[in-house]
């Protein structure tokens, strides 16, 4: 069988990615490619950033060649209207017309939900800073291929301040925790079968700790998630304890399950 063609969409602004690189942090697209390589090298992966493109003329003529799309994280907030966010929503709508299988992660899920007519707002129960605790799969999720062999309750890397509050028409809710009622969903839009996750199975806890340190001032002074650096360090210590008990295969199982689904559908 020929290698699958996979499109990875980078959700961050180019400036944020440059900040990442200057601080020695992989972009989210780079982290995703590394995680995919853990499972298979039988993928032809292209990376596309809608924020950096004034038009989609270069990619749209060939977009139907992709058997799958993974749309990853971003530091943006979907309700902060700007041209870069509008471009991402517009491109997601184009993907709905052309790509059958979409894995939408965190920001990607928020873009997909918005493009499909749902709604995302600032989370009313706080934020996930590096980790989401006690995500619980519901009855719909337990029978869904996304969660094959997954523990019913689990922790995961996560970094989000927002949440889905209105699902797209016909969407199925799969998992929740105390911070976000909607932790994962499945819906169809256009020709696309969309699996959405609010958390990040593809990003390591080590990278999450690096991001916390990178965003330290913003987390204290802008986001008001911590009162001082000691609180941040206490939270990092908690995540480091999770690293000791976390297993890579279990953490990334959703990514593996989606890849297997993609291969079976090809």
Summarize the structure.
The chain is an alpha/beta fold and 266 residues long. It is built from ten helices and 13 strands.
Description:
- The chain has ten helices and 13 strands.
- Helix content is 38%, strand content 23%.
- The mean pLDDT is 96.
- The longest helix is centred in the last third of the chain and has 17 residues, at 229-245.
- The protein has one domain: Class I glutamine amidotransferase (GATase) domain (Rossmann fold).
- A hairpin with a 7-residue loop joins β11 (172-176) and β12.
- With 266 residues, it is α/β, with parallel strands linked by helices.
- The termini are close together.
- It is globular.
Low-confidence stretches: none
User: Gyration radius, to the nearest Å?
Assistant: 17 Å
The CATH topology label is Rossmann fold
**What's the CATH architecture name?**
3-Layer(aba) Sandwich
Q: Helix proportion of residues, in percent?
A: 25-40%
Number of strands: 13
Largest sheet: 9 strands, mixed
Q: What structural class do the secondary elements suggest? A: alpha/beta
The figure for the number of domains is 1
CATH class: Alpha Beta
- What is the first-to-last residue Cα distance? 10 Å
Number of helices: 10
| CATH H-level homologous superfamily name | Class I glutamine amidotransferase (GATase) domain
Mean pLDDT: 96
What is the string of helix and strand elements? EHHEEHEHEEEHEEEEEEHHHHH
The geometry reads as globular
Strand order of the largest sheet: 2-1-3-4-13-12-11-7-8
Tell me the fraction of residues in β-strands, as a range: 15-25%
């Amino acid at each position: 069988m020929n290698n699958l063609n996979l499109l990875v969409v980078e959700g961050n602004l180019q400036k944020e990615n440059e900040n990442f690189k200057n601080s020695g942090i992989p972009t989210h697209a780079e982290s995703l490619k590394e995680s995919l390589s853990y499972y298979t090298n039988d993928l032809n992966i292209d990376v596309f950033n809608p924020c950096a493109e004034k038009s989609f003329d270069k990619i749209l003529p060939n977009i139907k060649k992709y058997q799958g799309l993974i749309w990853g994280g971003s530091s943006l907030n979907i309700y902060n209207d700007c041209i870069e966010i509008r471009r991402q929503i517009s491109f997601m709508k184009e993907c709905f017309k052309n790509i059958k299988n979409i894995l939408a992660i965190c920001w990607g899920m928020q873009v997909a939900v918005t493009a499909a007519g749902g709604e995302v707002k600032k989370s009313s129960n706080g934020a996930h800073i590096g980790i989401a605790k006690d995500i619980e799969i519901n009855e719909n999720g337990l029978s869904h291929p996304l969660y094959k062999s997954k523990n019913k309750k689990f922790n995961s890397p996560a970094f989000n301040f927002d949440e889905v509050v209105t699902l797209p028409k016909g969407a199925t809710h799969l998992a929740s925790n105390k911070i976000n009622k909607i932790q994962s969903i499945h819906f169809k839009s256009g020709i696309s079968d969309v699996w959405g996750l609010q958390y990040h199975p593809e990003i390591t806890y080590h990278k999450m700790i690096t991001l916390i340190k990178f965003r330290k001032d913003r987390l204290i002074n802008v986001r008001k998630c911590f009162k001082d650096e000691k609180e941040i360090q206490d939270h990092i210590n908690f995540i480091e304890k999770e690293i000791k008990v976390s297993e890579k295969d279990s953490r990334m199982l959703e990514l593996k399950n989606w890849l297997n689904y993609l291969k079976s559908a090809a």
